[in-house]
Amino acid sequence: xxxxxPAHDDSAGSSPGLAEQLRSAExxxxxxxxxxxxxxxxxxxxxCIETANRAAERLFGFEPGGLLGKNVSVLMPSPVSEEHxxxxxxxxxxxxAHIIGLGREVIGQRLDGSRxxxxxxxxxxxxxxxxxxTGILHDLSAYKAxxxxxxxxxxxxxxxxxxGGIAHEFNNLLMAIMSCADRAAHKLPEDSPAKKYLVExxxxxxxxxxxxxQLLDYSRDKPPQRRPTDMNQLVGGLQKMLGQLLGxxxxxxxxxxxxxxxxxxxxxxxxxxxxxxxxxxxxxLSDGGSLCVRTSDCQLARNHGRPxxxxxxxxxxxxxxxxxxxxxxxxEHAFEPFFTTKGSEKGSGLGLAVVHAIVSQHGGSIDVDSxxxxxxxxxxxxxxxxxxxxxxATRP
Length: 396
Prior knowledge:
Helix Hairpins; Heat Shock Protein 90; single chain; alpha+beta; Beta-Lactamase; five-stranded antiparallel beta sheet; five-stranded mixed beta sheet; 12 strands
């Protein structure tokens, strides 16, 4: 009889056993979930969260494990949160899907109630009669901020082209009008009823001339003439003039806390930035108050969380007041050209837009902290001069 040989055992030798394969597959899946940059959430047919990776928990402000067992509607603002269970039920009954298999932009809501834009992709998993839904969530906040900056930059560029095309010619016409009105006023006797009207023409012309100069500042054909500048000296040299502009009913302070290291900037344009910020703050102090101009140092390391700034040394220029403050909607549009809340007779809507354009040309940034009735702080970051490094490039 032929010799009987034992059946081959697939689990023996170099082939891993089934249990080991399952452990390896589970480890790989867990690694993918925990290292994914985007949030991943798995829910059951009732909308309850069965799986949420750490990125999803961070995205929505939950502690580890804090999402498990909760209805997915906790991640949505009203009224979508109240309607979501109905969406799932209707899909299970009718198969009518509006989002499964597709990506779309939605609004998420964090644990603290704040809302943010995100991109959502939903997939369905079926095994027998069991269904699960997987959502992949990508935060769009940074993208939306860049999008707003791009739109603002395009607006500034359009105004710059307009300024370069008409400002000089218009200014020449304006000077002729002001000159003729001034000559006519001098030829009339002091008691002439017409003289008071003629005197107003040069005054109005001077306001229009200031507007033209602001429009010309939008022309980006001429880059800023940057050089090492002592920010403390620059601010100190303007202190007396700024105090006179603010008037006696405003308490004016200057705090020069920056080090002796120099800032790499165009001093004439930074003076204009400071002047525009102080004038803007003065309008918020119509009933008096206090205003402070402050300089300080700032060092940004790598991965500092500011995509608009390269790592390195910066000088911070801050203008703070305790005036009326701004609503969030006003802050959002404050640096747009021709946006103003002051009325056509008091503001052109170009002051802060000019500030934004100049700071962008210097490779810096602007932050605004303001609340209604609690004043406003505008902080500007400008690159420091580092002799051994190449100066930061001017942004267009």
